Each structure stands twice: as C-alpha cells, then as structure tokens.
C-alpha cells in the first residue's frame, strides 16, 4: 500500500520533532568530567561515549548479547534527562538515583519524549528504554554495566573527579557501582577494580 505524500510529510514532521527535542540532551550537564578534567560532560556526550564503549568492549559481553541492541539502548537511555536532569549516584542527593519518585518522573518524561515519534517508532524505542531500565535481559545488563563503568574511567583519568567532590570511598564504589558492572561484565570489572584499588590505596 502506497503511503500518501501527506502521511509521509506528517511522519517526517514527527521524526524531526523527536530528533530536535533530543538535541536538548546536549544541554544537560552531568557531574562527571571529561577524561582530561577540563569540564563536565553533558548527557549527549555521555550517551555517544557509551555507544562507543559498547562497540569497542563487545568482547567483554556474555555470550548471546546483541551489541547492536546494546548500542541502541545506550543512545536512548538518558533521553529522559531532558526533563528530569541527571542525578549523580555519589552526590548528596544520590539516594534519589533509582528512587520511586525519580522512576515516576522518568516514566512521565519517556511518555512525552517518545510520544513525539510516529506510533511504530514510539513503541519500539520506548520498549528498548524500558528494557534498559529493568536491566533483566542480557543486553540490558551489559548496557547497564557500561553505563556504570564509563564514569569510573573518567574519574580515574581525571585524577579523582567527582570521587573527590563527593568524598567517595572504595567501599561505596564497590557497592554502588562495582556490583552492577560485575553482573554484566565480570572480567571488565576485575580489571577496572584493580585500577580503582590503586587509586584508593
């Protein structure tokens, strides 16, 4: 069945409404700095870097993980921060990270942002976002592992970064971050943990 020109135009308008809204993610600042420590990164940069992490560290995934799906999840995972902002896991407000209140706010943001898309894309991309959030499938577990390990590497490379700001201890890093990284990428966490232990002494 041929799609009418009007329908095609409407679809493109919806697609670009979403893409233009997604540009706002570049204005959401995170606590984590760039590797060189020169400034904080934004959530758009974080999402891009994580997609690259998945591509380069694919050999760290458990058998059966589909890296193309992991990359798609990571490109989408923080879009809700356009409305909700970033809640640093080690900050004074870190308890809000993953709280029921934050989850409700993020779900509402997902309704709005993914709702800009045509229905088929809305449902497909929203489902990937929800899969990432639930962290139950092998793809999502690996994606979550990378989401936790990237800030660790940034902090290591920048001489402590937000760990210094928030007085993070090795024990806090293990309990808040290490457990989740090890769940999806155990060999990766073993290597990274060696680096963090050297930092914390």
UniProtKB/TrEMBL annotation:
The keyword Hydrolase applies. Residues 22-189 form the HD domain. One of its GO terms (cellular component) is cytoplasm. The keyword Hydrolase applies. GO terms for molecular function: 5'-deoxynucleotidase activity; metal ion binding. Keywords: Hydrolase, Metal-binding. InterPro entries: HD_domain, YfbR/HDDC2. This is HD domain-containing protein.
């Amino acid at each position: 069945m041929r799609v009418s020109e009007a329908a095609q135009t409407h679809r493109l308008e919806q697609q670009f409404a979403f893409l233009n809204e997604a540009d706002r993610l570049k204005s959401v600042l995170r606590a984590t700095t760039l590797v060189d420590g020169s400034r904080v990164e934004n959530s758009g940069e974080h999402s891009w870097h994580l997609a690259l992490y998945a591509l380069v560290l694919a050999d760290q995934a458990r058998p059966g993980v589909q890296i193309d799906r992991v990359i798609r999840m990571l490109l989408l995972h923080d879009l809700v921060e356009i409305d909700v902002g970033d809640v640093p896991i080690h900050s004074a407000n870190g308890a809000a990270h993953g709280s029921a209140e934050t989850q409700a706010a993020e779900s509402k943001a997902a309704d709005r942002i993914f709702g800009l898309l045509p229905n088929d894309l809305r449902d497909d991309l929203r489902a990937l976002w929800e899969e990432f959030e639930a962290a139950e499938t092998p793809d999502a577990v690996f994606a979550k592992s990378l989401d936790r390990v990237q800030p660790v590497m940034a902090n290591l490379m920048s001489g402590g970064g937000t760990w210094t700001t928030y007085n993070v201890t090795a024990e806090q890093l293990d309990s808040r971050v290490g457990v989740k990284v090890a769940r999806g990428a155990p060999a990766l966490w073993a290597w990274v943990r060696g680096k963090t232990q050297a930092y914390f002494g």
